[in-house]
Amino acid sequence: MIDSVIAGTGNSRYLRTSISASTTWEDALTMLRAGTFPIDLAGINLAGFTTLGTALNSDTLLKSAVITALGLDADATPSDAWEAIIEMIENMSTMTASITLSSASWSGSNPYAQTVTISGYTVTANTRVDITCNYSTINSLAQDGVSAIYAENNSGTITVYAVGAAPTSNITVTATIYETKAVS
Question: Whole-angstrom distance between the N-terminal and C-terminal Cα of the chain?
Fold first, then answer.
C-alpha cells in the first residue's frame, strides 16, 4: 500500500455544503465551532497531493476471493478475516511419523506413485503431509536418479510420488502431518 502525502497547500479536498446563501459568517462560524456545519466531502483535488495513496475500499482491504476462501459472510471486515485465520492456525494439529516406502510398491511412470498409510492416523480430506529425508536417503535417491519426492492428499488417500526414477531400495522418510479442522 502507498500512503497519501498531502502537499500542505490547503486544497487537497473539495467540500460541498447545503447551507443557504443567506447564512452569515457569524452563523457559519458558530456552526463550525459547534461541529454542526453541514458538509459533504466531494472528492479529492489531485493538485493538493504530492503522492496519491492506495484507495481504501473493499477490494484493497479484503478481496471477495479471500472472504470466500475463509468461508466468511460477504460483509466481513479485515478483522473478521484475521480472526478466522488465527482460529484455523489454533485448530491445526501436527504430528510426525516414519513411513517406509517399499521399492517394490512404486507404480506408473514418471512420476512414480506409491499409496501409503500412516500407522495410528486416519487421513481426512483436510490432512496435509510433508515428507523429509535424511542425508543417506537423499544420497540413495540421487544415485537412483530420483530428482524429487513429495506427498499429496488425494481425497483422503496419501500418495508419495518420485520424480525422475523409482527408488531401487526401500527408503524411510519422515512425514509431518497437518490436520486442519473446519472453522466454525
Answer: 31
Which region, left, alpha or beta, applies to residue 61 given φ > 0 means left and ψ of -120 to 50 means alpha?
alpha
Helices (H), the chain: 25-34, 58-61, 64-69, 78-90, 135-144
Backbone angles phi, psi at 44, to 5 degrees: -105, 155
Q: Taking the CB of residue 77, how many other CB atoms lie within 10 A of it?
A: 13
Residue showing cell 446563501: 21
8-state DSSP, 12: S
- Going through 70-118 in order, the beta strands assigned E by DSSP cover 92-101, 112-116
- The rounded distance, in Å, linking the Cα atoms of 167 and 183 is 39
* Cα–Cα distance for residue pair 143/107, rounded to 1 Å: 19
User: Do the beta carbons of residue 171 and residue 138 sit within 8 Å?
Assistant: no
Q: In the chain, what are the domain boundaries?
A: 1-54, 58-90, 93-180
Q: For residues 33 and 22, what is the distance between their CA atoms, to the nearest angstrom?
A: 19
Per-residue pLDDT of the chain (184 residues; tens, 9 = 90+): 788 898 888 888 888 889 999 999 999 999 999 999 998 888 888 999 999 998 888 888 999 999 998 889 999 999 999 999 998 888 777 888 899 999 999 999 999 999 998 877 788 878 888 999 999 999 999 999 999 999 998 888 899 999 999 999 999 999 998 877 655 5
